């Protein structure tokens, strides 16, 4: 049975949950979403039952499990925790609601041509930027054109767009804009969402030109519910409510409810959990998985966990010896016991990975036995593959670089490799050092991967396209023309069954080549105090605060 999505399915003003389930596997995602607490199970109060004076005001104090946020310019963001913040500062053309439906953000409606080559968006006429300038179709055109012409990392999401100077971005009138593609792109709407999409998050030309790229990345001007008042890198980001924000709730009350959000950088697991339990912070963007059981017993804290389509891998730098040898990579992959790692490093809040694609979305998921078994745990075969190679003679010279976020996973890998005689060292670094070295290829090994995204392409495209074309996060230096071509082929395939077959072929290739040694699909877990209301945990790694309110 064909599951091709036609133009009517993808046109606005809302892409239904049924269509979204086909496109993103959303039905499966929400079935695994959960919220637990140690409290008495009281239901979340409905906005309509709370008076406006109670809803409005107050500042949320949020802890971010990160040492620093180096970039809030959406099209340049490569770290999931960064776009959790930027999604509160910017709007996209479309967004995801709590039912995992694609709905308008800055767009009120849109149509898709029958051939999938033209997307025409009708825009809101009541939107202002944080600097007071009015939003129009010209801002959409400037954003996309600027991102493409300056080779912003996220511009690869629109690689199939006609050149903007040749009609790729067409301003029809003040509040109508069209995107014209050279070939269909099955993930276009996902790429244009607020947060995960990033390439379509609308920037302000005046502010960018006045501030310059570096400063704009720290204190950007957008149209979102909150604006940046102060950003001290490595310490905090203070957001104030955008007084002229355009959205209201279902009762007509202006959003956001909060006066602001004060974000504190807290990179130590114990510190962020202690701060949440003590009430020093109201919200933790990530609860370290080793501390979830401890926090769940607190009656004053709500815990929400979602298993989506993110993945984590044991990454090896293919340009460095001995990782340029496929047999070395295969041997190391086979030495890692993913089942034990999921329990020991992620405390059961993860599923062992057998490839890059996990249990969601359902249309691309498949049983483990159907996948290539090159990376299946087999310590004896691992020893055979590594025997006589440089890996058996390293004496700790090779290192696995890691920040605090996946430190336990890195330690577990070090210990598991030692069981077959491989001696590597752990190199713990700060967040800023990590991302600089990783992007520049200045590392041996690490644990890294992709956070949850609406479409499975978003978890592989930037990682495995050729690095000199549009593989902007291909920091493992995995160079495969076959993988590159398969990624392009699936993007142009609207039928989900045909597209899934291509993605399965790609996944088996990535497993055989050990582009990464896939270890787990971990849950996205967040926590907040019981007097925080209105937060919706959308399974796309988002932390949206425009509907949040505080109970005094």
Automatic annotation (TrEMBL):
CDD domains on file: PBP2_NikA_DppA_OppA_like
Entry-linked Pfam families: SBP_bac_5
Membrane-traversing stretches: none
InterPro entries named among the record's database cross-references: Peptide/Ni-bd, SBP_5, SBP_5_dom
GO cellular component: periplasmic space
Superkingdom of the organism of origin: Archaea
Keywords from the named record: Signal, Transport
SUPFAM superfamilies cross-referenced by the UniProt entry: Periplasmic binding protein-like II (SSF53850)
Domain named Solute-binding protein family: residues: 101-466
Family: Belongs to the bacterial solute-binding protein 5 family.
Protein name: ABC transporter substrate-binding protein
Organism: Halorubrum tibetense
């Amino acid at each position: 049975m064909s599951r091709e999505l036609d133009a009517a399915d993808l046109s606005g003003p809302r892409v239904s949950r049924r269509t979204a389930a086909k496109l993103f596997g959303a039905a499966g995602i929400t079935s695994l979403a959960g919220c637990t607490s140690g409290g008495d199970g009281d239901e979340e109060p409905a906005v309509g039952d709370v008076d406006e004076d109670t809803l409005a005001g107050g500042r949320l104090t949020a802890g971010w499990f990160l040492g620093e946020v180096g970039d809030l310019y959406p099209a340049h963001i490569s770290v999931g925790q960064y776009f959790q913040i930027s999604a509160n500062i910017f709007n996209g053309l479309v967004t995801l609601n709590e039912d995992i439906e694609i709905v308008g953000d800055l767009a009120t409606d849109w149509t898709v041509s029958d051939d999938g080559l033209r997307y025409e968006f009708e825009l809101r006429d009541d939107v202002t930027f944080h600097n007071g300038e009015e939003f129009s179709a010209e801002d959409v055109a400037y954003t996309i054109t600027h991102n493409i012409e300056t080779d912003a990392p996220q511009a690869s999401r629109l690689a199939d767009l006609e050149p903007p100077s040749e009609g790729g971005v067409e301003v029809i009138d003040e509040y109508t804009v069209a995107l014209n593609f050279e070939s269909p792109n099955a993930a276009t709407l996902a790429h244009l969402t607020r947060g995960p999409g990033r390439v379509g998050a609308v920037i302000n030309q005046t502010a960018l030109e006045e501030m310059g790229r570096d400063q704009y990345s720290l204190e950007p001007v957008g149209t979102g519910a909150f604006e940046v008042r102060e950003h001290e890198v490595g310490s905090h980001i203070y957001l104030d409510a955008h007084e002229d924000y355009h959205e209201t709730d279902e009762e007509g009350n202006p959003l956001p409810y909060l006066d602001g959000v004060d974000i504190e950088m807290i990179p130590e697991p114990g510190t962020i959990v202690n701060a949440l339990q003590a009430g020093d912070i109201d919200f933790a963007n990530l609860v370290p998985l080793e501390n979830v059981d401890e926090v769940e017993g607190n009656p004053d804290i709500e815990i929400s966990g979602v298993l989506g389509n993110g993945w984590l891998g044991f990454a090896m730098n293919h340009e460095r010896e001995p990782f340029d040898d496929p047999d070395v990579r295969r041997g190391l992959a086979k030495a890692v016991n993913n089942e034990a790692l999921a329990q020991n490093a992620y405390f059961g809040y993860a599923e062992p990975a057998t490839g890059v694609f996990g249990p969601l979305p359902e249309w691309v998921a498949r049983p483990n036995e159907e996948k290539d078994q090159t990376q299946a745990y087999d310590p004896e075969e691992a020893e055979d593959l590594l025997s006589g190679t440089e890996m058996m003679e390293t004496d700790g010279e090779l290192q696995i670089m890691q920040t605090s976020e996946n430190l336990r996973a890195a330690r577990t890998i070090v210990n598991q490799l030692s069981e077959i005689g491989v001696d590597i060292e752990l190199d713990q670094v700060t967040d800023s050092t990590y991302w600089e070295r990783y992007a520049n290829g200045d590392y041996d090994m690490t644990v890294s991967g992709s956070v949850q995204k609406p479409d499975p392409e978003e978890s592989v495209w930037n990682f495995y396209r050729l690095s000199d074309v549009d593989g902007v996060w291909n920091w493992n230096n995995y160079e495969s023309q076959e993988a590159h071509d398969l990624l392009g082929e699936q993007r142009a395939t609207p039928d989900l069954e045909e597209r899934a077959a291509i993605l399965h072929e790609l996944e088996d290739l990535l497993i055989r080549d050990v582009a990464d040694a896939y270890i787990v699909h971990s849950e996205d877990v967040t926590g907040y105090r019981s007097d925080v209301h209105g937060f919706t945990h959308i399974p796309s790694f988002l932390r949206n605060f425009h509907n949040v309110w505080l109970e005094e």
